[in-house]
Amino acid sequence: MKRFYQYFLLIFALTLCVNIQAQAANNTLVVYYSFTGNVSAIVNALQQQFSADVIQIEPAEEGLDYAANNYALGSSLISAIRNNPNDASSYPAIKPVSVDLSRYDNIIVATPLWWSQMAAPMQTFLFHNGSEMAGKNIGLIVSSASSGISSVVTDAKRLIPGGNFLEPNLWIKSAQTSNAASLVSEWLAAINLPTSSNQETETMQINVGSYVFNATLEDNATASAFKELLPLTVTMNELNGNEKYHYLNTTLPTAADNPGTIQAGDIMLYGNNCIVVFYETFSTGYSYTRIGHISDTAQLKQALGTGNVAVNFSLPAVMGKKGDINNDGSVNVSDVTYLINIILGIISL
Ligand SMILES: Cc1cc2nc3c(=O)[nH]c(=O)nc-3n(C[C@H](O)[C@H](O)[C@H](O)COP(=O)(O)O)c2cc1C
After folding, report:
1. Which domains does the chain have, with CATH numbers?
2. Ligand 1 pocket member 39 (CB < 6 A)
3. Who's near 283: CB < 8 A, 6+ residues apart?
4. Is 44 in the pocket of ligand 1 (CB under 6 A)?
5. What are residue 259's phi and psi, to 5 degrees?
6. 20 to 30 A from 116, CA-CA: which of 47, 151, 154, 257?
7. What does the pLDDT look like over 86-129, one tens digit per residue?
């Protein structure tokens, strides 16, 4: 009888293991198409702020210029779809896409606008896959030079019947692309994208005098190494009326690039040991590695003041998590191993 009981618990533990591994993936997919790079830049900004799987749609035929001869090719592709939207042959071929849509709760579709409609290659993808997106949360991001996006929204609703369209849609004009990071950040807050428990982003708390700010941490080696230093109180020096910086007495891993625009609230690493907290938004020619971002910056400038200032960085207190059987702060396969060891009597409670 005891053996049967152990066997039953073992099966239960293995089932739990499979579930934990399934949950470890993102529950949001971003599917995008970009011809001249604007939507790519927007998706890039999105990825800096939100953990999602990303797939790119590509036309089967490479090197086509949809904008040549006053957009002749793009125009004829859109006309073909407009004239016969239910016929598969109206849609231009795209490269095969391997994705299991059933894995995702949320799908963000990011597309350029062509002749007021959704760009043809994205329409092809949705024509073939949209029905599998029924019941899922759909976010729509559209880039156009100037035209309004209402017909693209209509296309999306036609091609994803049964999609649960999140409001509002995000319309970014080509000229606003350099500002994509803040537009995307506002949009993500507005749609309040439902996330699975594993999507909890790591956060850090920042205390400046009596002010308390919460920052999300990047999922990168630099942020992980910085976390190891916490809690940490440092004096940060004022620079240029837009940042406070502090040279650590240790170095952190780097993967620097030029962000183009610095956003107020960005927490960056300059070089390999200089922590910078920005309290203004501006264009930069310098390169940094991202550590995190303070999303609510309403009082940040006021808190940091005009001179040097003491800043405390800390991690939020770890609360007991559902499923964290071994109490190590995360829910993963080691919890299952721990459970199996209890069942087999290797660990006694
Ligand atoms: C074939 C084609 C048709 C377009 N038609 C329009 C249009 O009707 N109105 C508009 O505002 N922009 C139009 N555009 C401009 C794109 O929507 C805009 O440049 C967008 O930012 C491109 O995104 P991408 O760089 O990711 O390809 C068109 C672009 C192409 C290539």
Report:
1. 27-197 (3.40.50.360), 203-314 (2.40.100.20)
2. yes
3. 178, 260, 261, 262
4. no
5. -75, -5
6. 47
7. 999 999 999 998 888 988 899 999 999 999 999 999 999 999 99
